[in-house]
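S1.2 Input.
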Amino acid sequence: MAKRTAIIDIGSNSARLVIFERTSRYGFFIVCEQKSKVRIGEGAYEKEGFLQPIGLKRAYLALKSFLNTVQKYQTHKIVCVATSAIRDAPNGNLFISWIKKELGLSIKIIDGKKEAQYGAIAASNLLPLQEGITIDIGGGSSDMALIKEGKILDTYSLNLGTVRLKELFFDKPIPAEIINQQAKEYIQKELQKLPKHFKHAFAIGIGGTARTLSKAIMKRSSHPLDKLHAFTYAVDDHRTYLEAIPLSSAKNLKRFMLDKNRYDTIREGTLIFKEILYAIEANSVISSGVGVREGVFLEHLLKNDHFKFPSTLNPSIVSILDRFQPFVLSARKRKSILKLGSKLFDTLNSNFDQNDNHLTELLYALELSSIGNTLTIYKSHQHAFYIAMQELSYCFTHEQITLISLLLRMHGKELLLKPLYQDFKMLLPSKETLLWLSFIYTLTILLHEASNDAAIEFHYANKVLTIASDKPLYLAKEKIKALEKPVPFAIIVKDEDHIPKNKALNIV
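S1.3 Output.
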């Protein structure tokens, strides 16, 4: 597979370009992302589905600009897919031929089930879940996939889209209540075609409508982490909010804290989204920052792995470790620090039982502990915190991202930075647990930095933590004395401290 791959997705409402760069067999990151609101299907539904010149011209200019960007980034592999607006248009093939002739770009039309499959591949690989139903509301269709135990069991495409609903109902000069009633009947009639086994407590929101709603709900609930991907909310907590948006006039949408760039189709999209949520009996929504484009990329990346990452691998961690070489610890050193951290965790957890099984987050933090050195060794812990907050996206919950990042921020003798703790308190474990994790993280770092492959063992009894090492830990001992502890206890270091005799210096 090419080092850089450009994915172009032409939807009914928007066209998007994403350029992915591979860093290793399973590592990748996004180097460029662009979007254009082409509305290629504008006016089509009232013209027997024929694409109109106004939308075709915008699409041509957007694609031409995308190709200039692709050339700028020296990207040699391009995959361009188109969805319902072009798929359903009688003149869709004429547009494809025109683009191929004028721009040299090949466009692959994908059906609704394939579109749903791409979204499901992305969600099942890049979200911290193993099952649920994906909902991707586009301009012309709503595509869904049923995922169980990490496998895509079924897909379905509904003939429901925001642009389609807008032109059929919401653009009519009639009262909002009547529009909603007519549109709801239309949606519910289409939902009767959905297979009965499409029921699940977890809905996975993909696409512009779901993301716009999630961003607004994050604002309304003062969610502390500014990251859409993996944000989760309960349907019942926001049912009134979701019910009110479709009934609003366009002028009053401001009060819902929605992105104003989505005003033109958000009422239609919300109506479709909430009716699907009710139909599948969803209790919770997890927001996906990934979708068709990531699915297309992963189909190529994971074609020899049955379209799944190995279960022991986290793509965010792999990408960070790849990109911050040689600043991150070598593989051998990483194994050493993880072993040390696990030993200390087990010793203290068995005695205090305060860590609530956060070993996974602790080990990820230890694995990433040196990434801040990329910029400078000075205040490297602050750099590490920022990098982690931005780059830990895939397969992590918001709680995990916050905890790992906060552990990376720990430095010196204090175990807790109170301002950060207050900012992210709602996503963090108890203060007691956090203090213990911070202590274990900091002590592990101190011991690992001061030793050179030393064999270190821990023992706790009678309020004394004993650290035994077959090599000197002189530098660590100085810092350990000043280190804050979660509860009062003593630390004794038994290391190799042999000093050779020298009579001239009176060292005996």
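S1.4 Remarks. The mean pLDDT is 94.
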